[in-house]
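Chapter summary example.
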Amino acid sequence: MARPESIALGGYFPTPSTLLPSLASLLSFDAAEDEPYVLVDPCAGDGAAIAGLRQHWFERPEPGAAIYAVELEKERARGLSHHLSFRGRLPDVSLHCDAFHVDIEPRDGASLLFLNPPYDVDKLHGRLEQRFLERWTAALLPGEGILIFLVPFYALQA
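The structure predicted for these 158 residues follows.
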C-alpha cells in the first residue's frame, strides 16, 4: 500500500529541478537534424521537468523539440499549459486527461519518453510504474527512441 502522503498527492513526486542538469547531461540530440524532435511526458505534473530538460538540450528553437504532455490532476494540468509554448515547427501539446486513455501513434514515435509515473501499487501489474512503462513504451520511435524512467529503487523488482 502506498504511503498516506503519496495517496494524498495522487502518487505525485515531481522530478527535483536540481536533478535536471545531471539527467540532461546523459544524452544529447543532433542539432543537424532537419525535423524537430518529439519529447513525450505522460505524467507531466506542471511540466517543469520536461520543459527544463528541453531547455538544457535545445538552445535554439529550430529544429528544436515539441513536447507532448499529459496530466490528470486539474491544478497541475493548468500549470502544465503555462510551461509549454510554441517552439519551432511543431507546437507543444498539453492534455488534461488520464494517460491510459490517450491514443498512442507508434508510427510517428517519440524521440524521448520521459516517464516519472505515480509511485503506487497496481492490482494487475504489481506496481503502477510498471503499468505506465508497458503502456507508454509503444510511444517511442522504433529503434531510436530514448526512455528516461524515474522510479524508486523498490519498484524495480516489478
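To summarize the output: Residues 48-57 form the longest helix (10 residues).
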